[in-house]
Each structure stands twice: as C-alpha cells, then as structure tokens.
C-alpha cells in the first residue's frame, strides 16, 4: 500500500493533483488548516498523521538533520529543490518512492529527489 503523503505549503498544487490522479492519498497543509504552522510544527503534524512530508523548503532539511542528530523520530522527509525537476518528473519520482517504500523503512530519513 502506498505511503500517505503530506504536502508542505510551498509545493505546487499540480504535484498534489498529479499524485492524486495516480491514486495516492495526498493531504496538503492548506487542506489540513496547517498552512501557518512553523516548519518544526509541520513536521510534527505529518508525523502525528503517519504521513511522509514532501517539501521544497531548505529549512526543513536543517530541521530534519537536527532531529536525526538528536535521535528524535519523524516519519521522514521527501525533498526536491524547487529548480531540480519539472512537475512531471517530480510526480513520477514521488509516485515511485511512495509505492515501493514503507514508513518503517524511511522513518527518520531524508530522501532527495530527483532520483536520477
């Protein structure tokens, strides 16, 4: 079963819609009423909901690294720089990761996209 994903506020809606068309369980921070949370609180919210957090925000990389260093748990972060890939390739890479991994495998990790 694919991993449910939580979208940071900075992610283009086309990415969320592309994943939904592929059958993924996508929740955006906006739809969750969490669009004004700090990055720390956003990662906590994704973890509380058991969802992988997808972001294009460099600040979340620092937060995840700090949590890794201190041994704090979180569901995991998928990260893509805003200029690293177009919408289509990004949706394809997210689709692949969300289908082949499970939350236990990627908990506490940061996965960088694009995969190629």
From TrEMBL:
Protein name: DUF5615 domain-containing protein
Domain DUF5615 residue range list: 6-78
Annotated organism of origin: Botrimarina colliarenosi
InterPro entries associated with the record: DUF5615 (IPR041049)
Pfam name, any one: DUF5615
